[in-house]
Amino acid sequence: MTQTVAPAPSSHSADRVRPALASRLMARPEIGALVAAIIIFIFFLVLAPSFRSAESFFTVLYQSSVIGIVAVGVGLLMIGGEFDLSSGVIVYTAGLFTSMFCWYYGVNLWIGAILSLAFCLLLGFINGYLVMKTGIPSFLITLGTFFVLQGANLGVTKLVTGTVSTPDISNIDGFDSLGKIFASSFKIGSVTIWTSVLWWILFVALAAWTLQRTRVGNWIFAVGGNPDSARAVGVPVVRTKIGLFMVVSFLGWFVGMHQLFRFNTLQAGGGVGNEFLYIIAAVVGGTLLTGGFGNAIGVAIGAFIFGMTSLGIIYAGWDPNWFKAFLGVMLLLAVLVNLYVKRMSTRRKVG
Amino acid sequence: MTDTLADHADKGLHKGEPLVEMEGVGKSYGAIRALRGINLRVNAGEVTCVLGDNGAGKSTLIKIISGLHPHNEGSLRVDGKEVNFASPREALSHGIATVYQDLAVVGLMEVWRNFFLGSELTAGRYPLAGLKVKQMREIADTELRKMGIVVKDINQPIGTLSGGQRQCVAIARAVYFGARVLILDEPTAALGVKQSGVVLKYVAAARDAGLGVVFITHNPHHAYMVGDHFVILKLGATALDKTRKEVGLDELTQQMAGGDELAELSHELKR
Question: What stretches pass through the bilayer (chain A) (predicted)?
Fold first, then answer.
């Protein structure tokens, strides 16, 4: 590409039409989720007295962040047109790997954490590589890795420790420093702020910037929207998609570290089902299931709705078993809103 | 209107020098042989027209030059060097830009994002460098206006434009980024008379700016207006390969329409 860029003329921006604010807002992916979040927030404010404190707001944020961090990656991947069903169990794979490696060999937890990161990135790469090289839908490939990891998590843990949970690692070197990074909290006044909330905000901001304002973001939308056209104009489709799978596994590792250093010990069977929570957060946040449309802020709002409802039901004193039913209704509503928005924004405007 | 081409054309181009040379090129998809024994030269400052019926291998031919599918027989040389493109990105880096008939745009993305897709302007080379959004919008808008396309809002999803307008965006993009070779796969098929005229002017302007142009079309009239060199494909092989001096519009039309077969058909249908 040898072209030079001529200085941009700015003469005729006068007759360019800027659509009305309302229709510009309607075209944004997160608008449906934002409206839903406000309604749900007011709903619990009215019905659950204990929901009304700043403390419980930050507890909701914490709950949202644990789902939200991986959901950001899953959202990016879905905008890129692929699924990752192994994203729930990889969180526990990461934690179990670190924990048992360091316990068994008696090495510093930093070594285990870094090896675990490398292992998770490799898993993400394998997911992406298999999807791109075989052309089999990512739904099937990652369903496979999901079962492999789920089984291996239990099997290996049983082999190493003899039980289905990992030994307490809080006495191993490196626990304190890693704990500071992944699972510490501080108090401002009466509220407790977990670092995971700050990390969540950071990851959302990074993802939002990447999607809207960088070359890679442009490529993510393109490979999700129309991979053949994207390739034809020179977008590296394979690299972009494999990279997205690795982002998901990186964020899965990150939350795995949080879980491990927060609770010192992990259940080997954990994480199953969370992959759907991530997908729901992304879809509720306006991500199109077929790819090519969505944004990171929307996914964050989706995760926040999850946090609000899962705790709000408890604060309101209802049977928490209703939570899943509520989640299902949210998902259905979100899909309908998305369908409507997509029709609106792609319909040809007359005149 | 055509200053974009003159501005962006590689200054090192000399009229008449070969840019793309194909020798005995063939391509098979499994057991199906889509193309065989093709010899084609694309010279700087000349328009090579490739004509042929449906399924003659025209699209396969340009997909080889533009890097979409690698060829599996013969040799492809660009600027005298043997190449085998693994991806369209490699072809683009040689200054070869293509307007595909079927692979034009990503419908849900904004017009300006589509225009710059794969060749975005960024503020730096580091991975998270910001896009120069304002500049890209201005350039996309200006280039489209030069083609006579005024979009209501450069930020609207390109899926909201008509088929012809989308095609024009794809052409404007190729003209903007194709520094050495411009390949157009039936660019006028979806266009009206006026827009077709604009496209033909672009083809002529690209030729005058010293680019090598490969112009694929069904329409011998369009081809004869701008072409320097004509190749007719039939069932994956070359049926005619003549320069403008050697062939007239009548012969071209007749060959294109099937020559003797057409005479036979008109005899059968005689009323």
Answer: 31-51, 57-77, 89-107, 113-132, 139-156, 191-211, 242-261, 267-289, 296-316, 322-341
